[in-house]
Amino acid sequence: MEQNWLKNSVVEFVGTFALIFVGAGSIIATGGQNLVAIALAHGLAIGLMVAAAGHISGGVYNPSLTVGLMVTRRMAVGRGVYYIVAQLVGATVAALALKVIFAPAAAAAVNLGTPAVGLGVGTAAAVLAEIIMTFFLMYSVFGVAVDQRGAKAIAGLVIGLTITMDIFVGGGLTGAAMNPARWFGPAIVQGAFDNWWIYWVGPIIGASIAAVVWNQFYLSDAATSLPHAGSTETEQAESEQPAPRRLAA
Questions:
Q1: What is the pLDDT of residues 78-109, one digit of tens each?
Q2: 66 belongs to a structural domain
Q3: CA-wise closest residue to 245 among 46, 53, 9, 77
Q4: Which pLDDT score, from 0 to 100, does residue 148 have?
Q5: Number of domains in the chain
Q6: Which domain holds residue 114?
């Protein structure tokens, strides 16, 4: 395993913890009634975590984005596996913290902030919504983090605003998870498993499609491999493709 696996795992743990603690916490705090606050909370959490530590692990914080990077061979499978484990553990610990901090009635009223399919929204529509929203997220990530021509200085802002934008349109449809970890932590702690597969299938498909579009159409003639900030030259050579310098969500 990579020499820096522990450092990278801690960064992915903390970033995903922040997303669930702030994002799901905002839902509990507002009773799920303030979409603007909820959207901004999620976007700010990811944007700031990308800016704070994206230079160490890549700041992926999202299993579906991790899968997209592995599909396009921009992250080695071994690295992707431990990233996903760290992300899911971070999400679960954050949900446990919310369970302890908030009053039981407030947490139960919104299922601890677990994303849920809205009333009257069909299963197919919910999956499609998650696919489209996660497509936009991965599209932004590749544009500002993977492509060397992108505006990396504002990567956190762009990625955070994409999440905010998606929640504005999809919050009432599916909870706009765009991230299996965003569903996983609160669902495990609260025991809320309705439509669980939507929050894995939708985001993974959306992220993978966006990653392939960028990789095959936009970057086919561009030199796009970025050195992994947390890796030595030897570790970089051992990986199929290093993770981008800044990624998120």
A1: 999 999 999 999 999 999 999 999 999 999 99
A2: yes
A3: 53
A4: 84
A5: 1
A6: 5-238
